[in-house]
Amino acid sequence: MSAETVTAMCAVVIAVASLVVSVYQTHAIRQHNRHSVRPILQLHRGWPPGGRAGIRLINSGLGPAVIIDSTLTVDDEVIGAWNAASVDRVRDRLPVRPSAVTFNQGEVIATDYEQYLLSVASYDPQSHAEVDDLINRRLTLKIRYESLYGGEGYTAVLRPIR
Fold this sequence. Notes:
Blueprint: H1 3-36, E1 41-46, E2 53-59, E3 65-74, E4 77-80, H2 84-91, E5 99-100, E6 108-109, E7 114-120, H3 129-138, E8 139-146, E9 154-158
Antiparallel strand pairs: 1-2, 2-7, 3-4, 3-6, 3-8, 5-7, 8-9
């Protein structure tokens, strides 16, 4: 085997190794970019006497969330998506009409978003008992969302307290 052949083979091995490292690094950078803009939607209940109370949606992630779909269920009956029509059907059943913020499929929830989805302005345990019961024991809200990259299928769920 001549010196030129050995040199050529070494050059090919180095080129292939360089290609493998480059492909791996590109994959790692893409994964890092996806994680660096990952939205994290959280649903919380809050019942401070005298304050705003109800269901709060928070995006505590580093990127915006794109709503894929949502499902509102009351007493194991699917009402529909978390949109104005479905939420109004639920609110109409209550003696006190809580405030509502709704969204549609494809809507983008910004980073640092924090908003009450269903709430009463000045919570009183006695006068808002039915709203409390609905949110804590009867209502299920499921939100499917993705990052701007798409395809992740993240889910935020608020389940009844049993």
